[in-house]
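Hi V.,

Quick status before I head out on leave. The structure for the redesign project is tokenized and pasted below; the design run finished overnight.
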């Protein structure tokens, strides 16, 4: 038997206009990188779709799993190939189509054909009619109850006559959607160990942004004593979507203690956030990022009222993106489960912020109030000290694994 073929469909929407070649080359590159190390015979492009031909069917499961993390893919079909028989061109098509649908359960069906190889003797309409009629008779003979529904079928058997193989498949697996990786420019995400910020980063990555991460940590340096290991695991889970990522680790406790000593208690948490944003902005500028990302969600916690988000955000000069701002917690957790970050964040860890949490945090602060609360502090000096003590880790996704490339200290001025 010939090895499996995977038909990859992408959304047409992002192909409008002159960017078509750019997006398609990025999608192709992303698939190549995602499948690195697997035995792929070839990737062809028989018009408006890609066909990936495997050499080894044993790798089908892993191939599909890896393609599931390639954004820009609308859906995937695992196809069987049909022979070309000049004497009887329909025979092998009907047989393959029957193999595809016979074990499926459905109330209505349709056959859709696409002929990009014009040498094939029948056109798409005739193929649909003939194969549809054959399936109809077979289903009836085997006692299936069903309707033919050309408008809104529950099951669609697809036949693609490409210049290469003739492909037949009935089931489609949903892809990740979104836009191809690394097509939109760079962003820097403030990554905590919680559920929200990794989902926020993923949402931007899926739209084609490349995201680097800044994590602020307190507590001890050993695993289990701080949130550093959680941030690392989260980044490792996200890297396959964009192939590389940097994680900046900033020791935050000394800076928090200073805020605690100098500033009114009810503003503490907001001042931590301001300082995080200032430091992250400097890191972002050094890395030529076009904006910052946080996991803020409207009114989820005290620091996320509209007033507090405005008062905190006032210190950045870069665009600040909050892709979860209108999402419910349940929606966020749903995505976290889907992308595999949920269980990492669910483990207990030492979060730096709650440690010095005020009893009654301000709910409706203004930027002016926070400016006044910072009067006894020297934010510029604190940013410098944060940048001096940070460390950087680089991650890369290759051969289906995430590896840490090197660990180095980087002075970001
Ligand atoms: P998350 O689930 O992402 O922690 P949250 O709903 O718990 O979010 P907060 O903990 O108040 O809310 O954090 C709001 C946002 O601030 C986070 O989504 C993240 O972007 C940023 N943030 C909070 N703590 C840290 C941290 N230790 N390091 C980096 N960024 C942080
Ligand atoms: Mg949190």
């Amino acid at each position: 038997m010939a090895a499996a073929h995977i038909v990859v469909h992408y959304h047409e929407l992002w192909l409008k206009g002159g960017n078509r070649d750019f997006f398609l080359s990025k999608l192709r590159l992303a698939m190549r990188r995602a499948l690195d190390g697997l035995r792929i015979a070839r990737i062809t492009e028989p018009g408006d779709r890609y066909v990936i031909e495997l050499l080894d069917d044993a790798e089908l499961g892993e191939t599909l799993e890896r393609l599931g993390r390639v954004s820009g893919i609308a859906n995937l079909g695992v196809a069987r190939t049909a022979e070309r028989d000049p004497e009887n061109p329909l025979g092998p098509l009907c047989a393959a189509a029957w193999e595809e649908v016979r074990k499926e359960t459905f109330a209505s069906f349709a056959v859709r054909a696409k002929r990009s190889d014009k040498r094939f003797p029948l056109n798409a309409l005739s193929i649909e009619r003939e194969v549809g009629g054959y399936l109809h008779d077979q289903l009836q003979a085997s006692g299936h109850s069903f309707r033919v529904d050309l408008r809104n079928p529950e099951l669609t058997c697809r036949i693609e006559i490409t210049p290469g193989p003739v492909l037949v498949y009935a089931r489609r697996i949903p892809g990740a959607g979104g836009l191809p990786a690394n097509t939109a420019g760079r962003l820097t995400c403030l990554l905590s160990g919680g559920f929200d910020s990794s989902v926020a980063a993923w949402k931007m990555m899926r739209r084609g942004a490349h995201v680097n991460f800044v994590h602020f940590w307190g507590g001890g340096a050993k695993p289990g004593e701080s949130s550093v290991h959680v941030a690392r695991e989260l980044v490792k889970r996200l890297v396959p979507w964009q192939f590389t990522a940097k994680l900046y680790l900033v020791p935050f406790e000394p800076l928090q203690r200073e805020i605690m000593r100098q500033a009114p208690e009810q503003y503490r948490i907001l001042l931590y956030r301001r300082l995080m944003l200032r430091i992250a902005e400097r890191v972002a500028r050094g890395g030529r990022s076009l904006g910052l990302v946080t996991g803020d969600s409207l009114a989820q916690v005290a620091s996320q009222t509209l007033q507090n988000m405005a008062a905190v955000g006032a210190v950045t000069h870069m665009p600040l993106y909050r892709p979860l701002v209108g999402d419910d917690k349940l929606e966020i957790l749903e995505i976290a489960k889907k992308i595999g970050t949920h269980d990492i964040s669910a483990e207990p860890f030492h979060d730096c912020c709650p440690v010095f949490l005020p009893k009654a945090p301000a709910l409706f602060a203004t930027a002016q109030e926070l400016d006044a609360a910072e009067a006894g502090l020297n934010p510029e000096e604190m940013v410098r000290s944060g940048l001096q003590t940070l460390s950087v880790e680089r991650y890369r996704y290759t051969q289906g694994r995430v590896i840490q490339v090197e660990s180095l200290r980087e002075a970001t001025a």
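Above is the designed sequence. Residues 5-174 form a domain with the VC0802-like fold (CATH 3.30.2130.30).

G. will cover questions while I'm gone.

Best,
W.
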